[in-house]
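sanity check this record:
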Amino acid sequence: MPRVAGSHSVSVVEVYSPPAAALLAVAGVFAKLAAPVVSGAIAVVAAVLPLLVVVLRGVPNWVPNWVPLSSAGLLLLLAGAMFEARMRDVRRLRGWLAGLH
């Protein structure tokens, strides 16, 4: 079948991979198994990354180069702050549990 210029045929793998990978990760959470959660998360990233690249190619060229870089930096800063807050909560919980004897 001839392809039309600019058209993109979607394969079955592209359609079913992200939901199947997410379902695997969620099933792993409910089963309390680490392997399905990790493999499902990796599969979600691997399935969504090509789609994200297509979307990012549509970003206009007039966006300054520092905007994506500073956005990524801000995202990492926020993630680090949230991680530190969760670690503080874990230490507090550990101390509380140790006091229960």
Q: What stands out?
A: Residues 9-58 form one domain. The CA atoms of residues 10 and 52 lie 15 Å apart. The chain has two domains: 9-58, 63-101. The helical segments are 12-31, 34-57, 66-98.
